[in-house]
Write a structure and sequence with these properties.
Elements lengths: L1 H40 L5 E4 L4 H11 L4 E5 L2 H10 L5 E3 L5 H6 L7 E4 L4 H14 L4 E5 L6 H6 L4 E3 L1 H14 L1 H12 L6 E6 L7 E2 L11 E7 L4 E3 L6 E2 L4 E6 L1 H12 L1
Parallel strand pairs: 1-2, 1-4, 2-3, 4-5, 5-6
Antiparallel strand pairs: 7-12, 8-11, 9-10, 9-12
Helix pairs in contact: 7-8
Length: 268
């Protein structure tokens, strides 16, 4: 009788702890999903990254380092947890990016752009098509493994299609024939202290025409004006007396802080 009662007690203890563990884990997952969805609702003008393996992971790192709000969408919980070990406090939606509900949870209606960068061209095509159906104004950049599928991606609504294979070949050729240029760009991208990037700032429609000299851009630290994009042409190294107009987009080499300062100048 003692052995029977002792065994029943042990089994009850093990079963109750196992049940508590399972229930607690499910509750934690539910609270985590609710927390993420609540954080997404507070975002506007953010970017959605669909697929975080390989190319997607590097996109997330770049968005994180340059201070741009973003949401991750991936169906694989293990990949998400692995990313969170490297970059904490990321906002994510665990779900299938080809499903419109997952994109809605990621705030696609208020997003500026979407990256379809899974390892499967068919999935990327469906993601692009679904995203454009929900929000026709969103900019979609798609990863394409097979160059033959690039036109199909564009027909599905992709604004830009990037082939890592093609880019990799161009990079290797540049490494051979213009190594100093490649070295300069690598150092610029990997420098964590200055965090320099080539950025663009568009003059809003409410912007009053003024010269570059009047903007006092040269007084800003870590800001170098490279070019101005007009309606139909590029103006490289524009002179100080160039008249900036509302339809212009200015290309700078600057830091995230410098980019924010430039946006404030044009907004005011």
């Amino acid at each position: 009788m003692f052995i029977a009662l002792f065994g029943i007690g042990i089994m009850t203890y093990i079963f109750s702890n196992f049940t508590a563990y399972v229930v607690e884990g499910e509750l934690n997952e539910a609270f985590r999903r609710m927390k993420m969805e609540k954080m997404v609702k507070g975002l506007k003008g953010h970017y959605i990254v669909c697929g975080i393996e390989g190319v997607g992971l590097n996109i997330v790192k770049e968005l994180h380092e340059t201070g741009r709000p973003h949401v991750i969408v991936d169906i694989d919980k293990n990949k998400i947890n692995k990313l969170l070990e490297e970059i904490r406090n990321e906002i994510f939606i665990e779900g299938d990016a080809t499903d419109g509900d997952s994109l809605l949870k990621a705030g696609i209606k208020d997003a500026n752009g979407l990256f379809a960068v899974t390892g499967n061209d068919n999935q990327n095509l469906v993601i692009s098509l679904t995203a454009k159906q929900i929000n026709p104004n969103i900019k979609v950049v798609v990863r394409c493994h097979d160059i033959k599928n690039m036109e199909k991606m564009k027909l599905a609504g992709a604004d830009s299609v990037v082939s890592p294979t093609l880019i990799g070949g161009m990079r290797m050729a540049s490494e051979m024939i213009r190594p100093m240029v490649v070295s300069f760009l690598d150092v610029m991208l990997r420098d964590k202290e200055k965090n320099l990037r080539i950025e663009e700032v568009s003059a809003p429609q409410s912007f009053t025409e003024t010269t570059i000299a009047s903007l006092n851009i040269k007084k800003l630290p870590n800001v170098l004006l490279l070019a101005v994009r007009t309606k139909g042409d590029w103006i490289y190294n524009p002179p100080d007396n160039y008249l900036v107009k509302p339809e212009n987009t200015l290309i700078f080499m600057t830091t995230p802080d410098g980019r924010d300062n430039l946006k404030k100048i044009f907004a005011s």
